[in-house]
Design a protein that fits this description.
The protein has about 140 residues and is an alpha+beta fold. The chain has one domain: Beta Barrel (OB fold (Dihydrolipoamide Acetyltransferase, E2P)). The chain contains 3 helices and 10 strands. A 5-stranded antiparallel β-sheet has the order 5-4-3-7-6. The longest helix is centred in the N-terminal third of the chain and has 11 residues. It is globular and about 50 Å long. It starts with about 25 loop residues before the first helix and ends with a helix.
């Protein structure tokens, strides 16, 4: 793969162009790294602070004013509030309920429900509910 680097004068001029035959998982990983200002967030588990890679997050939920990060490996707590995480995370994350943010790359399937909500099945088999107010944005991001 050929890499071209062009120097620019200001941060506002920075951009990246990726020319590929197929969008593979490694290309998606590169895109995630480019889109995210930080590729990890600090989380706590068993009195330890660890760095959790953003691309491993399935969803983040707020319960009793505490934020929990769910990955394939388990559940971790983070000090960030949901609105702070929305700013940190890439456009691949979407608010899907008042107390939840989901990684749209971890959605396996979606299904409409009678009341206007949607149910999403994640790659790990978990199911989450997309509130009515967020369904339109989810459909746009998924191209449905």
């Amino acid at each position: 793969m050929r890499i071209d680097i062009k120097h620019v004068e200001t941060p506002e001029e920075e951009s990246a162009v990726i020319s590929v035959v197929n969008v593979t998982d490694s290309v998606r990983g590169a895109i995630d790294l480019l889109e995210n200002q930080c590729a990890t967030i600090p989380v706590q588990h068993d009195d330890k602070t660890m760095m959790c890679r953003i691309d491993q997050i399935y969803y983040i939920e707020s319960v009793d004013k505490r934020s929990f990060v769910y990955t394939k490996a388990g559940c971790y707590e983070t000090k960030y509030r949901l609105y702070e995480l929305e700013e940190i995370l890439s456009s691949r994350f979407l608010r899907c309920a008042k107390a939840m943010i989901v990684n749209i790359r971890k959605i396996r399937s979606v299904k409409g429900e009678i009341n206007g909500r949607m149910r999403a099945e994640l790659l790990n088999g978990e199911q989450i509910v997309i509130s009515r107010g967020y369904v339109k944005e989810l459909k746009e991001k998924l191209g449905v």
